[in-house]
Amino acid sequence: MDYSTLKQSLEQLRKKGPSIGWFCTYTPEEIIHAAGYTPVGIRVSSGFEDDDVHLGRNMCSFVHSIFGAALNGEYEYLDGVIIPHCCECMRRLYDGWELLNDSVKPRFAYQLDVPDANTQISVEYFTTVLRRFMNAMEDKSQMKITDETLMQSIDIYNETRSLLRRLYDLRKRDNPPVTGEQVLEILDLCMTVPKEDFNREFGAWLAGIEAGSEPAFHDYRSKIAIYGGMFNPEIIKYVEKDGTGGIVVCEDACNGIRYFESAVDLTRDEDPVKALARRYLSKMPCPRMAGRRYGDRMPEDLLKLVQEFRAEGVVYYITKRCENLYWEFPFIKETLDKHNIPLKRLEGDISGDIRTREIKSFIELLDF
Is the entire prediction scored with pTM above 0.90? Predict the structure, then answer.
């Protein structure tokens, strides 16, 4: 099966059955799945950023995109949405959803309180939060979530994570057989297709690629890593465009490796809910986690990825009005400078034009 066939097959499986939307990778999809819903990740621009005139202009474009789409009925196919309190913009999104509930679709929204630290106390607290979340999902679906059904969902999602890690291992090769653009499309499909279907279709395709495949590009390409939150996918398209001379090999981002890099460990906790709480708080964190804010994990995570994927340079993409990404940048720059790793900072929205000239000049400098 070639890539275009895989993509077409997965696209046909979207929006299958009852579904709940989510906007942040700190959302425990396993609980949604165990309640009988297909979790649907909303991870790209809806095209309705300018339609939101309610939340205020100090919100990021991702939040405006979500709320603008909700006001226009773009998520009408969903049975509800989960909005974690992962940042202040997301918190205001939930406030707007509740305030204008008669105007948005779907009307059901659940706010999930996610601790911003990974400690034993926070794991215990988040376990309690997830039990309340389970109760809400049970009430919504009229389906009881048992330990057995939850562990079945965990097994399915752990299989997905394993498959995606194998996909990223392909990008560590001298000449990767997949492009960054293809990987981003696969991740988007993975977040919007029932996991059972994704695992079956993608697993078969991946096995064939691992057995032997041609490089994605036959000419020399500078290897680029991307760091950010929700970044503009046009960056990857431009980096890999003919004449630019790059290939994206890793994304330490919310629509990248943070989604899947760690599995739920059921051997440590007999309680599957606590195992979920531990996994989501200990996974590769985004800038909203307190530990990364003070620099004790944040630069080292990216440095490890750069070395592991042998990236020659890093593009740090700041979504405008994301305060967490703004104040994290000095920690990143200091660490990468110490290891002589080139860094390019860009600012923009989750869609629209990007500063292509700066990307091209950055990649050209890597060749010297």
Answer: yes
